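Hi F.,

I've been meaning to write this up properly since the lab meeting, where we talked about keeping a consistent format for the predictions we share between groups. The idea is simple: the sequence comes first, exactly as it goes in, then the structure tokens exactly as they come out, then a line or two of notes. No screenshots and no reformatting. I'm using this chain as the first example so we have something concrete to point to.
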Amino acid sequence: PRLGDVSPAPPADKALMRRKLGRDVEMLPLDQAFRTPPEVRPPEVRADGTLAVRVAKDEAVRKIGLDIANHSNVALRIKKVKDGLVSLHNQRFPGMAIQAGDLILEVNGCSGNAEQLLSTIATADCLDLVLRQDSV
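Output, unedited:
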């Protein structure tokens, strides 16, 4: 082969990967596997003690991954963190993890109305969250 020629990678053996990892594995093209969405940024603790977090939906992960409940009609209380954008955030930034008991006070600049917060979470692809960490 000449310099610059690229041989195709051998096909992934999903059965072998399943045996080694104990679960099914979805193989992504390299450009997707190593891509960090440009919208993602490190979380920030604001002067008022709230936590500002940005998460972004993409082709692979569309769900925020939270069980949430209305909190006094003005915020959302996190009941449980499941697989999704928030668990990925927690893996990337374990020191600023979002946990059960935290309150979502604002989503994409919207605050004060729990139904509007839910609607924004459901429809927007990029979510700027402001939380008060208030573990139960």
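Notes:
The CA atoms of residues 81 and 87 lie 7 Å apart.
The chain is about 20% helix and 30% strand.

If this format works for you, I'll send the rest the same way.

G.
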